[in-house]
Design brief:
alpha+beta, Heat Shock Protein 90, Ribosomal Protein S5, domain 2, formyl-coa transferase, domain 3, eight-stranded mixed sheet, five-stranded mixed sheet, elongated, binds adenosine-5'-diphosphate, binds magnesium ion
């Protein structure tokens, strides 16, 4: 073993640098926060190659004095706090004096700055923690920080940077938060020479939101403005009818600082209460203002985590503010009876039909049918997206439903005499169709109910998969091309999966900053739901970006969800055709999302139900 020695300062600096600016996104965050701390109201962020080659942040803030230039890149050098007691009430975004020091240690850094009261400006250059070089230059008021070749001198770190698209997506996420957290500041974000976002800096959160999400968003939001016990909560949340399947669009700001907090997210959802479905999330940009000493932001170098000293008060404030705003803007209930959370055990799950049966006079319950498949969602009466969300179980990709069904089958084995598999359907008699949704069919010793939509989905799934495997999905042209604007991470997800989508029969191309134009869809897809389908695909592809095979499967599943609607009256011929296809199916008799294609009630169970046998 070698003897212990203290690391050379430049080596220690490089190691530490990787902690503060672990990625281009972290560097952009630090630099833009410096600009905000300097009072800038116009900030331009430019990156090249995901920030790996160049990060440049320009502002019109207070600038750095000539005498302070070298200090700015020194360790623990800051103008923002002076003594330990200042830590108790930090009002600026930065205070640790680490960002410029770190960037100086791990990139080729240039800082150009001129304060308003200086006639000329200074340029400071530092390469990889070497000696800073200062020169003078005529400069506009404000500061520009340029960090080139991030981690060029720490190969191990550089190797761990993600792909250009992934790093750019993370930078886009940082800028999104900056824009939403500072509506009075005009941000311009340029990625590889293209303007991605340009916010007006009007001071209105709606304008900031429209910059990121497109102007249509303004029709789907509710204003929140409430003061509760010294804590003010202001901002915008989406209407309960405008939900996302991921919590990625929830933004909280504390005294101007973006923060992450599960406690606040829970409080937000509690504010929505029964208006929101399980596994669905609103869009939210809420700013909390409270006395600085109510929270500690010095928990982590990233300064994203916050410790609230009065967490319950803060949660109450958010919940009350959101609930109040929603109550004013929409009727108290949308008629959704859905549970806001699932009990863990399958047997604890509420059975909607139980209630219905009680109401109808305690009719005995048929065993197998409801055990084979219980609706996970309650039935609501609202329209649009929410309705779709209720028709399909949302936890479909975790296979929990399959597991529950299997478990139930096992649990009931003793009671089930001869439960038939849909694949055994060979010599069947079609009885008819009920509710324009289910096909009734007799086969052997059982009565089958087949969900025609689930069956179509399954068949389309198999067809699309086969087409994709052969690499020739058939396209149907859209009458009107659909142009959609995406968030930067969504945009890069689409880019990465473009070839899969093209092979499936989608036709799409980049169409301006963060926009894609769709001109055709796979032939089996119902074009009426194109917007939702695209959202769904993005959601699926955002789960785990690296697994190509899994991604293909997710896209197909999303696509066939929009195949053919329930509620179509089928002719006898069509029913026969569908049934024959189902009977010929090799795969498991569930739709691609885990809902069963068919349920069976055996003759024995019917007889038990009618008390013909015990
Ligand atoms: N864009 C800027 N405009 C004006 N001053 C700046 C800017 N960026 C950095 N500085 C100055 O450099 C100092 C060091 O910055 P930094 O390393 O980020 O530490 P911190 O922000 O924690 O103080 C800041 O305290 C500030 O005085
Ligand atoms: Mg800083």
């Amino acid at each position: 073993m070698k003897r212990i020695h203290v690391l050379e300062e430049s080596v220690a600096a490089r190691i530490a640098a990787g902690e503060v600016v672990a990625s281009p996104a972290a560097a952009v965050k630090e630099l833009a926060e410096n600009s905000l701390d300097a009072g800038a109201d116009s900030i331009t962020v430019e990156i090249v190659e995901g920030g790996k080659e160049l990060i440049r942040v320009t502002d019109n803030g207070s600038g750095i004095h000539e005498e302070d230039m070298e200090l700015a890149v020194a360790k623990h050098a800051t103008s923002k706090i002076a003594v330990a007691s200042d830590l108790a009430a930090v009002s600026t975004l930065g205070f640790r004096g680490e960002a410029l020091f770190s960037l100086a240690a791990c990139s080729r850094l240039t800082i150009s700055s001129r304060p308003a009261d200086s006639l000329s400006g200074c340029v400071l250059r530092v390469n990889g923690g070497g000696r800073p070089n200062l020169s003078f230059a005529g400069l506009p008021e404000g500061t520009t920080v340029r960090a080139e070749s991030l981690f060029y001198n720490i190969p191990a770190r550089r190797k761990f940077l993600k792909s250009t698209a992934q790093e750019a997506a993370k930078v886009g996420g940082v800028i999104t938060k900056m824009i939403l957290g500072n509506p009075a500041v005009s941000f311009k974000y340029i990625n590889n020479g293209k303007i991605v976002y340009q916010s007006p800096g009007s001071g209105k959160l709606t304008d900031a939101l429209a910059t990121v999400y497109g102007s249509e968003i303004t029709q789907n939001i509710v204003e929140v403005n409430c003061v509760h016990e010294n804590i003010s909560v202001t901002g915008l949340v989406s209407q309960p009818s405008f939900l996302h399947k991921s919590a990625n669009n929830i933004y909280f700001f504390l005294n101007g600082r973006p923060i992450q907090s599960n406690a606040l997210k829970d409080a937000l959802l509690a504010g929505y209460g029964e208006r929101i479905l399980h596994s669905h999330f609103p869009l939210c940009a809420l700013t909390l203002v409270m006395p600085y000493e109510y929270a500690d932001v010095n928990v982590h170098p990233g300064k994203l985590q916050v410790l609230f000293y009065h967490e319950n008060d803060v949660k109450d404030a958010v919940k009350t503010a959101v609930a109040g705003a929603l109550a004013q803007s929409s009727p108290p209930s949308l008629g959704i009876k859905a549970e806001t959370s699932y009990p863990d055990s399958a047997d604890d799950r509420p059975l909607e039909e139980d209630t219905a049966q009680h109401a109808a006079g305690n009719l005995p319950r048929l065993n197998t049918a409801d055990r084979l498949y219980r609706p996970v969602r309650a039935v609501g009466e609202s329209a649009g997206y929410l309705m779709d969300a209720m028709i399909y179980p949302t936890n479909i990709f975790e296979n929990t439903l399959d597991a529950i069904i299997e478990q139930d089958i096992v649990n009931n084995e003793a009671e089930q005499t001869e439960l038939k598999d849909v694949r055994d359907l060979c010599d069947f008699t079609v009885i008819g169709q009920v509710f324009e949704t289910y096909i009734l069919c007799e086969c052997g010793q059982a009565l089958y109910l087949i969900d025609q939509h689930a069956a179509h989905e399954r068949l389309n799934y198999e067809r699309m998969k086969a087409a994709l495997e052969e690499g020739k999905g058939t396209a149907q042209q859209l009458l009107l091309p659909v142009v959609k604007k995406f968030l930067s991470h969504e945009f890069s997800v689409l880019g990465q999966n473009e070839s899969t989508l093209l092979a499936m029969g989608f036709e799409l191309e980049e169409f301006g900053p963060l926009c894609y134009k769709f001109t055709a869809l796979p032939v089996a897809v119902d074009s009426a739901g194109v917007h939702k389908l695209i959202d769904e695909i993005i959601h699926e592809l955002s789960q785990d970006k690296n697994d190509i095979v899994l991604n293909r499967d997710r896209v197909i599943r999303a696509a066939c969800r929009y195949s053919i609607k329930a509620g179509d009256r089928l002719s006898d011929g069509e029913i026969k055709e569908l049934m024959a296809e189902i009977a010929g199916m090799e795969a498991i008799p569930t739709c691609p999302h885990g809902r069963p294609v068919a349920i069976a009630i055996t003759k024995t169970e019917l007889e038990k139900g009618f008390k013909r046998t015990v």
